[in-house]
Design a protein that fits this description.
The complex is a heterodimer of chains A (about 120) and B (about 110). With about 120 residues, chain A is mostly beta strands. Chain A has strands at about 5, 10, 20-25, 35-40, 45-50, 55-60, 65-70, 75-80, 90-100, 105-110, 110-115. Chain A has no helices and 11 strands. With about 110 residues, chain B is mainly beta. Classes of the chains: A mainly beta (about 120), B mainly beta (about 110). At the A-B interface, strand 10 of A face strand 5 and strand 10 of B.
Chain lengths: ~120, ~110
């Protein structure tokens, strides 16, 4: 079945870089787009960026200068790197799949909790 | 960016009741509107897409409606397992943007 699993460090120090991996199964990265979405603790959802099925990327303009999304299709993995982390980057980071017929996020990972603290 | 204004922020209702959550877009999003349910401690899950299409496996007591800038999610016959935060999201224009969420509790 369709599965997305985020992994990465739970703690990042201020000004350092966050690196997260989304490992997918049950579908191909060359057939589906994958998004990154984050949720500060107890707050709403923010779309961060997208790795399209064809390898193109797009980013939220508010994060674009700090964010990079890449992939390794042979490993079924999508990567997120965000630099210059601050305390307000603390929260849960999700990777999600864009459905072909729905055009929205029809599958979500369990989320990776990230705390930015010294 | 398109702003999504969701109301109410919180809602308390009794089992078996019908509840409605509203979402207002800052411009016409031509029914490109999804609703997600986030149960406590879990990731969001897709309920409805294209404003009124029910995702596979979602109970029929959930329904969506609306057009233009105004959309709503209705839950009939409220069940205890419906305790969640509900988010709307537009995918008409990039970046996709979300409402601030509605926390639904049982009285």
């Amino acid at each position: 079945q369709v599965q997305l699993t985020e992994s990465g460090p739970g703690l990042v120090h201020p000004s350092e870089t966050l690196s997260l991996t989304c490992t997918v199964s049950g579908f191909s990265l060359t057939g589906y787009s994958v998004y990154w979405v984050r949720q500060p603790s107890g707050k709403g959802l923010e779309w961060m960026g997208r790795m399209r099925y064809n390898g193109d990327t797009s980013y939220n303009s508010a994060l674009k200068s700090r964010l990079s999304i890449s992939r390794d299709t042979s490993k079924n993995q999508v990567f997120l790197k965000m630099n210059s982390l601050q305390t307000d980057d603390t929260g849960t980071y999700y990777c999600t799949r864009e459905g072909i017929t729905t055009d929205v996020m029809d599958a979500w990972g369990q989320g990776a909790s990230v705390t930015v603290s010294s | 960016d398109i702003q999504m204004t969701q109301s109410p922020a919180s809602l308390s209702a009794s089992l078996g009741e019908t509840v409605t959550i509203e979402c207002l877009a800052s411009e016409d999003i031509y029914s490109n509107l999804a609703w997600y349910q986030q149960k406590p401690g879990k990731s969001p899950q897709l309920l409805i897409y294209y404003a009124n299409s029910l995702n596979d496996g979602v109970p029929s007591r959930f329904s969506g409606s609306g057009s233009g800038t105004q959309y709503s999610l209705k839950i009939n016959s409220l069940q205890s397992e419906d305790v969640s935060i509900y988010f709307c999201q537009q995918n008409y224009d990039s970046p996709p943007t979300f409402g601030s969420g509605t926390k639904l509790e049982i009285k």
